[in-house]
Design a protein that fits this description.
Length: 116
C-alpha cells in the first residue's frame, strides 16, 4: 500500500493523463512507420513523453523508492532526455514498442497507487 502526498498524487495523475493522450494519439495507426509519418500525432506523443519524464522528476524520493521494483523510473527519465535533446535521433519503432509494450502496465500500476 502506498501513502502518497498531495504533490505525488497530482504528479501521478498528470502522468496518467499523458499516457491516455499517448494512447489516444497513437491508436489510429497500425505500425511505427505510419505513426511516424503523421508528424502531428508523433510530435504530440513525444511531447507527452516529455511531460511524463518531467512529472517523474517532481515525484518524491519516497514514492520513487516504494515503486522502483515495478516502475523503471530511470528509463522513463532517460527517454525524456533523449526526446528533449536528441529529437532527430528518435527511433520510431522503439517508441512504438514502448507505447504498445510498456505504457499499459505503467498506467495500471499508477491507477492502483491513486486508488489506495
Amino acid at each position: 500500500m502506498y501513502k502518497t502526498s498531495h504533490k505525488d498524487f497530482a504528479c501521478i495523475l498528470n502522468i496518467i493523463e499523458a499516457i491516455q493522450k499517448i494512447e489516444n494519439y497513437s491508436v489510429a495507426f497500425n505500425n511505427a512507420d505510419d505513426f511516424y509519418e503523421d508528424t502531428k500525432s508523433f510530435d504530440a506523443v513525444m511531447m507527452n513523453f516529455v511531460v511524463i519524464g518531467e512529472m517523474t522528476e517532481k515525484l518524491s524520493d519516497k514514492i520513487i523508492d516504494e515503486t522502483s521494483d515495478n516502475i523503471e523510473w530511470l528509463r522513463i527519465r532517460a527517454l525524456r532526455n533523449i526526446i528533449a535533446h536528441n529529437y532527430f535521433g528518435i527511433d520510431a519503432e522503439e517508441i512504438w514498442q514502448i507505447i504498445h509494450g510498456k505504457l499499459k502496465n505503467l498506467k495500471m500500476i499508477l491507477l492502483q497507487i491513486t486508488a489506495e
